[in-house]
Amino acid sequence: MLRHKDIEKAALEKFRSLADDRIYTSRQALEYGLIDQIGYLDEAITLAKQEAGLTTARVIIYHRPGAYKNNIYSQLGSSGRGKKGGKGHIVNIK
Question: What is the pTM of this model?
């Protein structure tokens, strides 16, 4: 019979063997148990709202001044669903 402490030690050893500066695809990360599921930002926000028992959420996405901003996260602010606020974007999700 395995004890809880033995299971934790085995899991830690597994993750240490994977933590060697390799870059994993989403499918590899899922296969190795590094992530729970594969999805997009809007799906992650929806799941987080459900887990927290919320119907709406306010997501603030920060970026460094002068940094390249053409990515999925910055696009939320320019899509009309969010507005710029200080050094990031504020997105109200319903």
Answer: 0.51
